[in-house]
Amino acid sequence: LGLPGAPPPPSRFVRLFYLRGYAMRAAAPTDSSEAIVLGTALLNNVFIPFGTVAPEPSPSLDRPEFTPYGIIKIPAERKLLVRGYRNTQWRQIDLAKLDLTKAQAWPLEDGSLGIADITSQGSALAVVGSAGEEAAAIV
């Protein structure tokens, strides 16, 4: 067991335990949206980029450790959120809408990076400059 920022799983989960505790004490989520934001932030803290943790040096077929996906469960709403390694945008599976008598599968990755172009959604804001004049700003 290393320091709470080290790559081995026990260290990452110690870090996660403490971060969650501090966050819950400071501002516990009051609804599922706030819980998803907190869960996402916590998962981001234990995310392992591919290649940053080397496999064991002994002869094996192990690949470097990494975080291939993330999951957030919302049992009260019967929902499951999943995101992949490359596309980290959450995708939702609503368990209440599923026919659980049929086996189903969903792709973990969709081939994209999940980047949305928001260029056309920008709008100018009036900002008071140091001399009191208004200026357009990008925030």
Structural class: alpha+beta
Order of helices and strands: HHEEEEE
Report the oligomer: single chain
- How is the main sheet built? 3 strands, antiparallel
Arithmetic mean pLDDT: 85
The proportion of residues forming helix, as a percent range, comes to 10-25%
* Estimated share of beta-strand residues: 15-25%
Instruction: Give the strand tally.
Output: 5
Cα separation of the termini: 42 Å
Shape: extended
Treating each run of at least 4 consecutive H or I residues as one helix, how many helices? Answer: 2
Query: What is the radius of gyration computed over CA atoms, rounded to a whole number of angstroms?
Result: 21 Å
Widest beta sheet: strand line-up: 1-2-3
Low-pLDDT parts are none
List keywords for this structure.
139 residues, alpha+beta, 3-stranded antiparallel β-sheet, two-stranded antiparallel sheet, 2 helices, 17% strand
Secondary structure: elements and pairs:
Layout: H1 9-27, H2 32-46, E1 69-74, E2 79-84, E3 91-94, E4 125-128, E5 134-137
Antiparallel strand pairs: 1-2, 2-3, 4-5
Helix pairs in contact: 1-2
Written overview of the protein:
The protein is α+β, with helices and mostly antiparallel strands and 139 residues long. The chain contains 2 helices and 5 strands, in the order H-H-E-E-E-E-E. The chain has helices spanning 9-27, 32-46; strands at 69-74, 79-84, 91-94, 125-128, 134-137. The strands form 2 sheets. A 3-stranded antiparallel sheet has the order 1-2-3, covered by helices on one side. Helix 1 (9-27) packs antiparallel against helix 2 (32-46).
